[in-house]
Amino acid sequence: MAIPSIITNGFIKTLSGLGNNSDSIVPLVAKDVISDCTLIHTYKKEGGKDDVREKAIEEFGTGALWLFGIPTFKFLVDKTIYPLLGLNPNLDPRILNNKDNKFDFLKSVKKNEVEEGVFNSLSNKAQILKKIQLPFTNKQMYKGVYIGKFLSSTLLCAFALTKLIKYKQKTTDERIKKDIQKKRNAFDYQKFLGNDNLYGAFVKKSKKDNKNVSFRGLSTSAVGEFASEFMFNPLKNTSILDAFIAGTRLKEGRKGERIEIGLKELFQVFFIYGLAKPIQMCFEAIGNKMNMPIELDARVIFDSELKDKLANSKEDIKKLKDSKDLLKSIYELKSNSALVDILAKNGTLPVVKDKNGITNVSAFKIIDENEVKKVIGHIEKLSGSLDSIKKIKAFKTFATLGNVVIAIWAMGVLQPKINIWMRKKLNNGDNRNPAIVQQEKEMQKLASAN
After folding, report:
1. Considering only CA atoms, which of 349, 350, 346, 348 is closest in space to residue 396?
2. pLDDT classification of 281: cutoffs 50, 70, 90
């Protein structure tokens, strides 16, 4: 593959990921990493010297765990636990619930060898390495292992995040102690560090100050809805960690900085979760007004064979629109269908290739029929606007990157500037972290008294 082609494909895949604000963590990665860099730069210019140290540890450390912890742990489980039990990690356990008899229908559709083998073995007893038989069927094991994977990956990452946030504050405490030692050579530093000493008293006081924050868990009635909404959506699964981070930061926050923490987390919630989709929809509405529909994924809009694929999809589109059983009609689409290719690139249909490279709709995943209907409407709209395809590509790029840039500016520049402005207003022009300033004063006071 030529270098220009590799660059083009890389750009299209990146744009596709950045434009998916429904169930992809790619926009989160871009927004979080770049906004963290701009946030730290803003504090370096306008904040105190301790801000940069703490922000770098906290933002990059928690960011790495937040964005990559869950996917990495799930990947490891997929590569170890699933093979150990003879299970296929690609199977979505929701299809096993037989809601609306969809499971019975999926058993009857045409499948490749791998999928057919998995479906045929669902009623068999689960085994470990085909040697140790378990008192569960494969069908039950698929559900249990997936729930275990979800809970363990989320809880382990949450535990690691707690440790990291505490480590960040510990490094600041150590820095303050060392500064005091340098300034007061006559001060017995080791005594200050003992368990029953002045520093111990200071730590106990700090912990006491942090006990006034409490959090409530999920109500029992919300558990079912919580599981279905968060277990199978990477974006929502990650949001659990984000909520945990916010709670931990507030709980562990020192006196004088909780308002700053709250404002930062509020910006995070709004610009990574709450406003990402509405901003995208605003750009899409503008595009439709200008006859430049951009609802479809970048991989569809930038497809070099788009015109031919749209032309070859007309018959299948009509078939699906006229169908009284949409799910059945989807699985009846021919192998390597142009419409299946478009819907797959848009992330609307799950597909699988057999050993001969032939593409068919996968029986392993849930298909949202309402989403399919909506996307078919977008495809027809794009078909009628092909004369403006160059403008559509340009506007799609502008809208996708614009959504990301807005969030980066808000979280990385606007939010820290507001916090620093509040510091100055509340602390007689002092732009340093008020909690750290208070720590220094109290530790110096204790040192002087000694």
Report:
1. 346
2. very high
Tell how far CA 362 is from the center of its chain: 25
Q: In sequence order, what are the residues at sequence separation of 6 or more whose Cβ sits closer than 8 angstroms to the Cβ of residue 355? A: 112, 113
In angstroms, rounded to a whole number, what is the distance separating the alpha carbons of residues 171 and 168?
A: 5
In the structure, what pLDDT confidence band is assigned to residue 19 with cuts at 50, 70 and 90? confident
E strand or H helix at 351 = strand 351-353
Residue type, 402: G
Residue found by looking up tokens 């368990």 in the block? 195
pTM for the whole structure: 0.73
> How many helices, marked H, and strands, marked E, lie in the chain?
22, 4
Q: Per-domain residue ranges for the chain? A: 49-86+130-278+430-449
Q: In Å, what is the CA distance from 250 to each residue of 165, 201, 241, 255, 271?
A: 11, 22, 14, 10, 19
Which has more pLDDT, 64 or 335? Answer: 335
**β-strands 351-353, 125-128: how paired?**
unpaired
CB 225 within 8 A of CB 407: no
C-beta atoms surrounding 133 within 10 Å: 11
The CA distance from 163 to 34, in Å, is 24
Q: Count the neighbouring beta carbons within 10 Å of the beta carbon of residue 217.
A: 7
Instruction: Locate 287 and state its tokens.
Output: 């595009």
What backbone torsions phi and psi does residue 166 show, to the nearest 5 degrees?
Answer: -70, -35
